[in-house]
Design a protein that fits this description.
3 domains, binds S-adenosylmethionine, S-adenosyl-L-methionine, MT_TRM10-typ_sf, tRNA_m1G_MeTrfase_euk, methyltransferase
Length: 302
């Protein structure tokens, strides 16, 4: 089918007419010539891409216009309101506005401080993303969201850690990079394994796994804890435990059964394990930490 504004002739050449904008105007097309493209399809694609760009530009311009209009309306409303206020009310309004600005600035500063603290923390928590191929696309998306929760919890934490995402490659990298703002997260991002990223620290690595015989009593600050980046409803039973054993890395499970009773299995999600890691380091209280992180529907009332 021919592009809007383009007449494709019998010999395959296209005669350019004009582009319809969203505003309904007709604009001449910049020259995209058939002879510059190896095939009719490539040529049509170029036209299509440019039309998409033009539509985007028109929409952007319309949004900008709309915003300017709204700003102007608000300004007028404020001026009208001002005329009806007493000098005391005006003074009070000004005070509130200044307080709001100061509060917003201090929140921004606090956020910057947290970001810096987290990226410089000496405690590293690895999230191992080498399991992309064991998950479906929707599981990978779900994992990407769990990583976002981890990142956000870390920023809010009293004792943030340095997050290292290892194995950030292939299909999982695609899902993770699709997260809004991900490229600006100040976290470690490694395509390769944690074994390479942390070479020389193999002795310090502890892979967290619900299948381990060892139990975490405290998080040792000299160790690096690894969480398996997997959303699988435990379809791949014991995969992280076997991986760690194969690599000669220590493993440990959280002391869940010692402190709470669960209705379901003790295999938690990545962000729940990460939150437990953060919260226990703050409170040193397993009962309190586990109850605050594990959803109540999972906890048994007995
Ligand atoms: C959804 S689980 C993955 C389950 C997977 N089938 C496996 O073999 O571990 C995601 C990760 O959270 C961590 N995890 C979950 N429950 C845990 C527990 N009770 N103790 C220690 N780590 C746990 C592990 O690092 C695990 O790889």
């Amino acid at each position: 089918m021919a592009e809007e504004g383009v007449v494709v002739q019998d010999d395959g050449a296209a005669q350019e007419t004009a582009v319809s904008t969203l505003a309904g105007e007709k604009r001449p097309r910049e020259e995209i010539r058939r002879e510059d493209y190896p095939s009719k399809n490539a040529y049509k694609k170029a036209l299509k891409d440019r039309r998409r760009l033009e539509t985007k530009r028109v929409r952007q311009a319309e949004r900008k216009k709309e915003k300017a209009l709204q700003k102007e309306q608000k300004k007028e409303e404020r001026l009208k309101e001002k005329e009806t206020l007493t000098p005391e009310e005006l003074e009070e309004k000004k005070k509130l506005r200044l307080e709001f600005i100061a509060d917003r600035r201090s929140k921004q500063e606090e956020r910057q401080r947290k970001l810096k603290e987290a990226s410089e923390s000496s405690t590293i928590c690895v999230i191992d993303l080498e399991f992309g191929d064991l998950m479906t696309e929707s599981e990978r998306k779900s994992l990407a969201h769990q990583l976002m929760y981890c990142y956000s919890s870390n920023l809010k934490s009293e004792k943030p850690c340095r997050i290292l995402l290892s194995g950030l490659d292939g299909s999982i990298a695609e899902s993770v990079h699709a997260l809004s703002g991900f490229d600006n997260w100040p976290v470690g991002k490694e395509k390769g394994s944690y074994l390479d990223a942390l070479s020389g620290r193999k002795e310090d690595l502890v892979y967290l796994s619900a299948d381990s015989e060892n139990v975490v009593r405290e998080f040792d600050p000299s160790k690096v804890y690894i969480i398996g980046g997997l959303v699988d409803r435990n379809r791949h039973k014991g995969v992280c435990q076997r991986k760690a054993e194969g690599q000669g890395i220590a493993t440990a499970r959280l002391p869940i059964q010692d402190h709470v009773k669960l209705q379901t299995s003790a295999v938690l999600t990545v962000n729940q394990v990460f939150d437990i890691f953060l919260k226990f380091r703050e409170s040193k209280d397993w009962g309190k930490t586990l109850k605050s992180v594990i959803p109540s529907r999972k906890l048994s009332s007995k």
